Amino acid sequence: MITAHVVYATITGNNEDIADIITERLEDRGIEVNETEISQTDANVFLECDICIVCPYTYDEGALPEEGLDFFDDLQELDLSEKIYGVAGSGDTFYEEYFNVAVDRFDDAFKKAGAIKATDNIKINLEPDGHDIEALDEFSDDLILAAQKQQSND
């Protein structure tokens, strides 16, 4: 059975909503999923699953979630070469060039860890709407397909 772990960081609740949408879609597709808040999670959890997902917020002018700095640093030190990953997060377009840069930084951290990117990053303005939910469902489906392909190669 394919397993996934969804880690989120949130202030407003928007990224928890995004994590919930992803988790629900994965579960509906038969994936065993754990969902945890970033300050309560050790990056090593990604060693125990097939699909790794982070839903971060971007604070102020491009800062990572303070409660997730250790997680971010530790993530880059892991060997995730057999793992599928995706990053989706909520931000505020008010911050213009800093809009959702934490999504890009976590994407880079996964690349540094050698994980396999299965789909495009998703950046949502504020809370997810109907269009965003459709995009998150497609994001989740892409992750599942990549994990199935990875398992068939093993």
What does this structure look like?
- The protein is of the alpha/beta class.
- It has one domain (3-153): Flavodoxin domain (Rossmann fold), CATH 3.40.50.
- It contains 4 helices and 6 strands, in the order βαββαβαββα.
- It has helices at residues 14-28, 69-77, 101-112, 130-153; strands spanning 3-8, 32-37, 51-55, 84-91, 116-117, 122-125.
- Strands 1, 2, 3, 4, 5 and 6 form a 6-stranded parallel sheet that branches.
- Helix 1 (14-28) packs across helix 4 and helix 2 packs parallel to helix 3 (101-112).
- The model has no long low-confidence stretch (mean pLDDT 96).
Comma- or semicolon-separated keywords:
154 residues, 6-stranded parallel beta sheet, 6 strands
Summarize the structure.
It contains four helices and six strands. It has 154 residues and is of the alpha/beta class.
Strand content: 15-25%
Helix content: 25-40%
Terminal Cα span: 14 Å
Number of domain modules:
1
Judging from the principal axes of the Cα atoms, what is the shape? Answer: globular
Q: Which sheet architecture does the biggest sheet show?
A: 6 strands, parallel
Structural class: alpha/beta
Classified by CATH, the class is: Alpha Beta
Our count of helices gives: 4
Instruction: State the fourth-level CATH superfamily.
Output: Flavodoxin domain
Give the number of DSSP strands. 6
Low-confidence runs of at least 5 consecutive residues: none
The CATH architecture designation is 3-Layer(aba) Sandwich
How large is the radius of gyration? Answer: 14 Å
